[in-house]
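call fold target=Amidohydrolase
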Amino acid sequence: MLLQRRLCITALAAASLGTMPAVNAQQPAADQLMLNARVHTPSGWQEALAIRDGVIVAVGSSAQIGALRAEDTEVHDLNGATVLPGLHDMHVHPVMGGLARQRCQIPQELALPAIQQHVADCVAKAEPGEWIQGGQWDASAIGQVPTRAMLDEVAPDNPVALTDTSGHSLWANSRALEMAGVTRDTRDPKGGIVERDDNGEPAGVFREDAKQLVEEHIPLPTREEITAALQWSLETMLSHGITTFTDAFIGVSGNGEAELQAYAALADAGVLKQRTRLCIAWTDDNPSAEALIAKRNHFARDRLAPDCIKMFIDGVPTDSHTAAMLEPYGGSVGSHRDNASATGMLLIDEETLNNAVTRFDKEGLTVKFHAAGDGAVRASLEAVQATRENNGFSTLLHNIGHNTFVHPDDIRAARKIGATFEVSPYLWAPSAINNAIESAVADQRMERAWPVKDMLEAGALVVPGSDWSVVPSVNPWIGLETIVTRRVAGDADGEQFGGKQAIGLEQAFDIFTANSARQAGNANITGRIEPGMLADLVVVEENPFQVPLHRVHATTVQMTFIEGEKVYEAGSR
């Protein structure tokens, strides 16, 4: 049934290519009309549109579209509001975004005394011995790599585990290390670093896979807690006009199966409205991940596709030095001694990576790579190249995520092998994480951080990702503004971050709509407003193309529609 529906939609779309067709007076009446609006279409601004059975059937003037009204047609008089295609977030963590609300939340860029006060407040609200989880700290604001003693001062009895702004480093107190059995004899695990003091004792910070030494001792959230967290996040994303998204890390809670069960249950209950792709986290030494991948189709639903694999190729280019770089880091916060390579670390070897991507491609699974450093991006592209040589080209668009740094040669290579770039988080402006990156890299490479403009000019497919809850907000309008201005949202003329890589607003809008629809495999049904496309729409009060650029982030969503169903209305939450 779904295939037949998509074929019909594709036929309608093909018939409507080119200029917008005139409304046929003999057409059946529409289910819904949107009149007196500003409608964004590929051929220019229109005034109205008509929807039947969840599909856009006509676009034109209010007079033309009004001819498709019947007695039972629902009419939305939008009084000059703007109608846009639904937005996409191609890298987001809704489960963690919801769970974080219940944890010890530390605003970014706080100095040590303020962090300690927040932790003390959280301890005061907790039960004796209860784990204190949360984030987000950053070493550049603290001024050094933090230590467990700093947390012991305010939390001597409760175990504490706090993630940094990247989510790739964990800061724990002595009680947490005691419960985890971490001592000076604990070795660095594969793909991880235990920071140590001058005496060789664990200092309290754990990088990448070393985080698991502590995390595996923290009680997992229940399925009910995961479901409630996810439902809150889904509603939040709808309120911002996000109609399609990719959950980039199934397993983020430590309980991947419960996350899949939560998605399926919410889909069955009619709560999951968005078109959703799920990426199951995989490592070569994790049997439970293989088991989850094997039964993934059990959780598939009409708008729910667990058909993506997440691979972590490196870490992050902050004080941790765990992002794999082609050239050595230029600086850092604090001293790493011999704990981290001068060029970072690859978390998977070339042969294992190439074989895994080739295998998943053959099974029809899209791979999303975590690759922040230019060395990791190159390794990911080489894996896609090996896959094409082994399997031939397919319709699968393997997607490299983050791309904080990319060598110019690799930017040009991506299109040739059918690889795509996802730029995340929404950190294209001065920020805490960028401060940490600049402290670590500290050279001219910062001029080409997140090289979005270069990617577009090379003809690469570029899509956006918030990486929420790594960033404080999932709001895509912040990303739309800052990818254009490369300034802090709302700042008209302040400091830019990587200003040479700024792009135009129309280019940015395509990244959040049509480009993302292509990445999701939905280019023939979503991402544009024209006859034959599904009515995934967002109605906003002000036209973001007509306000000053520094006000785009303040765009207010009035209504969100998915396949013609109104799934959000301002004031309804």
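return ok
Confidence is low (pLDDT under 50) at residues 1-19, 333-339. The domain at 103-215 is CATH 3.10.310.70 (Diaminopimelate Epimerase; Chain A, domain 1).
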